[in-house]
């Protein structure tokens, strides 16, 4: 099969190559998926670059997310899964068979049935961003009737945080950095969109909700003052991204607010929580509550350019088309 792979850490252009390798076979509890699209996330280039190194078993096919059709199953997996359209999550976590190849092998639970109403493009947008968004929202309980602030509502995690929070009955405000991103956040269904660079951003948000119940955060240091202005004893600030420089926490201000601070890294989320997230995401899909991000497409032979686009901060979802 045709696959992208690397066997050492480095820049995309230095270490990734597209080559022919043997087609993988599913083991017990696994499925094999004929890939259609592979989704690229920041975690993919960070692992490949060595910024967040993970062990390489001879070689690594990158990318966790994607969509395709199951064409073979391993022992213990019902045979009726063959022919099923699926969306995939964390395919390359602790495994060499990522989604940037014509076939991928992964645990059956990580290849989730894609409703007939959902496109492969939408399925490919899910995975890491949607599961991260779900964990940020629900790690501290239901959000029905709650006030939720999503930082960076035009990003992939922010997009699905808005849509999932709305689907499960929350009021949602979001912050963005400019008009183009504001339009993306409005399309996702945010009740209020605020440019955080405006001097009255905090006042706009306080008029919406004097205190937030959840704050889905991607830049804790940069947004700390704004977050604390909207926090109180019922507030959970949930951070899913690391900034280049670790912030210095004003502990007394956090204590005064009685705020709860949580950090999320999808690799360590309990399996029961990720399974629940996958089920909730699929229910939202079936209800038509989730939408795809703007797509930036690359063929498999240009996977280097795809990773470079994500590394440079492309807005939207970068996907690799599998021949």
Secondary-structure blueprint:
Elements: E1 2-5, H1 12-15, E2 17-20, E3 30-39, H2 42-49, E4 65-73, E5 85-88, E6 103-107, E7 111-113, H3 120-125, H4 127-138, E8 147-151, H5 156-167, E9 171-176, H6 179-188, E10 192-195, H7 201-208, E11 214-217, H8 220-229, E12 236-239, H9 251-257, E13 260-263, H10 271-286, E14 295-299, H11 303-311, E15 317-321
Parallel strand pairs: 8-9, 8-11, 9-10, 11-12, 12-13, 14-15
Antiparallel strand pairs: 1-2, 3-4, 3-6, 3-15, 4-5, 5-7
Helix pairs in contact: 2-11, 4-5, 4-10
Key features of this structure:
323 residues, alpha/beta, Quinone Oxidoreductase, Chain A, domain 1, Rossmann fold, 2 domains, seven-stranded mixed beta sheet, six-stranded parallel beta sheet, 11 helices, 15 strands, globular
Description:
With 323 residues, the chain is α/β, with parallel strands linked by helices. The protein has two domains: 2-126 and 292-321, Quinone Oxidoreductase, Chain A, domain 1 (Alpha-Beta Complex); 129-267, NAD(P)-binding Rossmann-like Domain (Rossmann fold, 3-Layer(aba) Sandwich), CATH 3.40.50. Helix content is 32%, strand content 24%. The protein contains eleven helices and 15 strands. The protein has helices at residues 12-15, 42-49, 120-125, 127-138, 156-167, 179-188, 201-208, 220-229, 251-257, 271-286, 303-311, and strands at 2-5, 17-20, 30-39, 65-73, 85-88, 103-107, 111-113, 147-151, 171-176, 192-195, 214-217, 236-239, 260-263, 295-299, 317-321. Strands 3, 4, 5, 6, 7, 14 and 15 form a seven-stranded mixed beta sheet that branches. The chain has a six-stranded parallel beta sheet with strand order 10-9-8-11-12-13, with helices on both faces. β11, α8 and β12 (236-239) form a beta-alpha-beta unit. α4 packs across α10. The longest helix is centred in the last third of the chain and has 16 residues, at 271-286. The protein is globular, with a radius of gyration of 20 Å. 46% of the residues are buried.
